[in-house]
Amino acid sequence: MSLNRKLISYGFTDLEKSRRFLDAPELQGLNDDDLFDGLAVAANPDQALQSFVRLLAVNRKAASAAFSDDGRRGPFFRLLGASEALGEFLMRHPEHLDVVRPGPAAPPVVAPEQVRSELLRSVGADPAEDNPVAGVMGVDAYCGLRVAYRRLLTDLAVRDLCHCSPVDYLPVVARELADLAAAALEASLAVARAELGEVYGPDAVARVKLAVIAMGKSGARELNYISDVDVVYVVEGQDLDDTTLTRIGTGLASGMSRGVYSPGPEPALWEVDANLRPEGKDGQLVRTLQSHVSYYERWAKTWEFQALLKARAAAGDPELGRRYEEAIAPFVWASSQREGFVEAVRAMRRRVTDNIPRDEEARQLKLGPGGLRDVEFTVQLLQLVHGRLDESVRAKDTVSAIGALSAAGYIGRSDALDLDDSYRYLRVLEHRIQLMQMRRTHLMPEDETALRALARSSEGCMVTVRPSAQSLHDRWQRTRRLVKRLHESIFYRPLLNNAATLQPEDIQLTAEAAQARLAALGYQDPRGAMRHIEALTGGLRRRAMLQKQLLPILLGWFADGVDPDAGLLGFRRLSESLGESHWYLGMLRDSNAAAERLCAVLSSSRFITDLLEVSPESTQWLGSDTALVPESFDDQWQEIQSKMSRHPEPGEAIRLIRLIRRRELLRIAIADSSNLLSQAEVGEALADADRAAVLGALHVAEKQVFGQEDQLTDVVVMAMGRQGGREITYGSDADVIYVHRPLPGVDEAAAQQQAEAIVARLSALLTQPCKPAVLAERVLEIDAALRPEGKQGAMVRSIDSYREYYRRWSLVWEAQALLRARPLAGDDGLAAEFLDLIDPVRYPQQLGESDVREIRRIKARVESERLPRGADPSRHLKLGRGALSDVEWLVQLLQLQHARAIPALRVQSTLAALDVIAAEGLLPVEDAALLRDSWSLATRIRAANVIWSGRGSDVLPSPRRDLEAVARWCGYGPGSGSELEEDYLRMTRRSRAIFERHFYGY
């Protein structure tokens, strides 16, 4: 066999470089077979060979001794092939090669006391003392401590790499790594005591007790090979004033950190991170125990109690550390009952993925979906929920906690085994990746060579076949998918278990435990939620069996919404309405997107839920984007004409017309919730639905009236306001004016009476109750207040009357109102004639100064008189500061002034007019853009108010829950209600300044 072929068979990748190292003089005299036997077990044989040659060059005697010993050779090359960093440590300190030695198949557990003693002796301190003082200081002490630490770390790494089952050995490794870190802190603290003794005197320093509380993985004794060590400091002094106590305590803490992390001849170990202390980076570095307790009693946030879940006295004064643990434990286990716990849990879940760079997400072992953080989140939340009453689940480390939760009946046995295996496997991968360079990373390597080395090092010593990079990747991806599934299964499936149908591996929670779990996930009425779950899954029918499979996922999606209880209740009602409908059950089973959409709308929209409950068949739209495309006006009108032809009776016809409008409102709202429509498209689609309904109602009204007397006149309904601009939202009124034109030769008074009868009947048809009722309908209210002379004027006028009125008496506000006039329903010829009539009125040759002053006066009066009493002007969406009214009045003033000269300004839409205003330079581009954003956000919030509550409101909500729901609809992420509030208030404040500058001229 050629050398190249041999190298390939042994797993080498850089053949040229490896051939050069094989020819190195340092290898002369060594047995080739022994060399290749050693390289055969190395995860990365290229690296192992290079490190071995370099070790021989540094200390041939020590390296040869390890190589020549048949028992030591395997561990030696396993270490060199898995950790370049530890190989370099042995090059710096070859005298420590003696730790590379064979061990028993079941290595003995190293006691924490033994590790502490060795590291304390490395700095000349007495291990028998509770608060030892080092006999060596400065750089010499730091180097001695770090070398002793790395010697013990190398010994542990050899045992880990040589174990036949790394996943089984993982808890031992993680505990010993945490014990090593604690011992290093203890030894470094001993050095700090000695150094501070020269400043304050040994007696003063001895009177200060400092307890080092380990947090996170260090506190749980499940540390990585390389990781920041999270700590909190507790200080106590005898007969010392607060200033001196704090100064010495801070000096001890800072000195301890310096000992393990400052630059020096022997590289730093890891960083000590004290940011989990009260008030974080802004808080005091050290506090007394009473100060800690006071903070947690009065000011701590919910996430801080979760951080305390793993708090453990790791170094320093043991008695003070014990008292700290006892003092903070009640806060931890009562945290699930605190106000805001659910919001904190949701925020914690978001932090899992929010800060992952997009290019790293697919490689994340820790933070990505199905990663270590998912396991830890699942376990910690279950502990916080159930540990309040059940002390048996209060384990600090994840592996023990999984076992305790399973033993106590909170996780099914099979799920617990899968979760435990997945966690151990992911931690082994994490350890092997970090071990290579002793760098803090949680990213899977991209290089194929590194992946193959990782695959080899993560297997046990009994595996002789070198695994491929692809096999590693496939197993990792399977594990990620399993962890994602387990999160759903572990949280929700136990809630569904019924005593009559339990499988041997299933668990059944007590009623109290099940309700506590639901409450922790955001359900306000957990008892009611359990009733819904029982109703949905009870019995042996196909629907119940399918929903038993689906609910673990659906419950999680409901919990992601603003109102999980409403979501679950709505789902129950829908399921009961649709019964055994094959398409409904199939959609839930086969369409993940449709089921998630359903959960999102049910838990976030009372408006949509109400409509779905009365027309459950519309649920099938959720599975198809095409089905959610709003029907055009022409399609709706064609359908209405067909209905009217088959149902000539007016009551039946108008009911069917209103049902079509209700259906289209629901379709538009669901499409809007699914981000399938822009805000402008929503307004246009809603306007089309209203137009079709008004046109249908007009035909029904005319048919009724003309059935009793001959036709005397033509009628047209002109849309005004936002209806005319096609910028309406859910539940908007229809602002209109009515115009009629008597037929030739008829009595004008009779024609006027007939026109009044038609419009009165039209309004009644659209607003009065139907038989049977149109349930959950948002009734289309017709508002004709913008007609000439307002509410004092005639409801309908002839076109000649309008012509005479506008010639003699019209006011400037009426010209302003006509800017948005658009035909809505009725005779097309009459509509065209009316538009020709009003164009000179709404687009005047010149707007005089007196007219401008009158518009300003009316606007000021509207602001002072129409704003509801007690309303906050900064939060009113329509009449408030910088809100809809301000933007629209400014735009309309500019249209009145310039539309005659600029035909492009003759548009009914506010946003379209703003675009022209900016393009023509009538306003600075940046001002127009801000007005557009302000108007759009206010419009979106108005829509969100209706969608969330089912009721219209012109006020930015203040209650946090309402604000959160509105923010979600406006496109903000979870937990962003305050962000929406700040954005709106800031935007409208700036919008108001622009309005005042250009409208009032100041």
Give me the number of helical elements.
Answer: 43
Please tell me how large the radius of gyration is. Answer: 38 Å
Mean pLDDT over the full residue set: 91
Backbone shape: elongated
Portion in strands? 5-15%
Care to count the β-strands?
Answer: 10
Topology:
Blueprint (H helix, E strand, L loop, with lengths): L2 H7 L5 H8 L9 H9 L4 H14 L1 H9 L1 H13 L1 H9 L19 H11 L15 H24 L4 H35 L1 H5 L1 E7 L1 H4 L9 E9 L4 H20 L10 E2 L12 E3 H10 L3 H6 L4 E5 L1 H17 L6 H14 L17 H15 L11 H10 L5 H25 L10 H10 L11 H28 L14 H10 L5 H12 L4 H19 L3 H15 L3 H9 L1 H11 L3 H9 L18 H14 L3 H24 L5 H30 L4 E7 L1 H4 L9 E9 L5 H20 L14 E2 L12 E3 H10 L3 H7 L3 E5 L1 H15 L6 H17 L18 H15 L11 H10 L5 H25 L10 H10 L7 H24 L2
Helix pairs in contact: 2-4, 3-6, 4-5, 4-6, 4-7, 6-9, 8-9, 8-10, 9-10, 10-13, 10-20, 14-16, 17-18, 18-19, 18-22, 18-23, 19-20, 20-22, 21-22, 22-25, 23-24, 24-26, 25-26, 25-28, 26-28, 26-29, 30-31, 30-32, 31-32, 32-34, 35-37, 39-40, 39-43, 40-41, 41-42, 41-43, 42-43
Structure characterization notes:
The protein has about 1000 residues and is mostly helical. It is about 60% helix and about 5% strand. Strands 1, 2, 3, 4 and 5 form a 5-stranded mixed β-sheet that branches. Strands 6, 7, 8, 9 and 10 form a 5-stranded mixed β-sheet that branches. The chain is elongated, with a radius of gyration of 38 Å. It starts with a helix and ends with a helix.
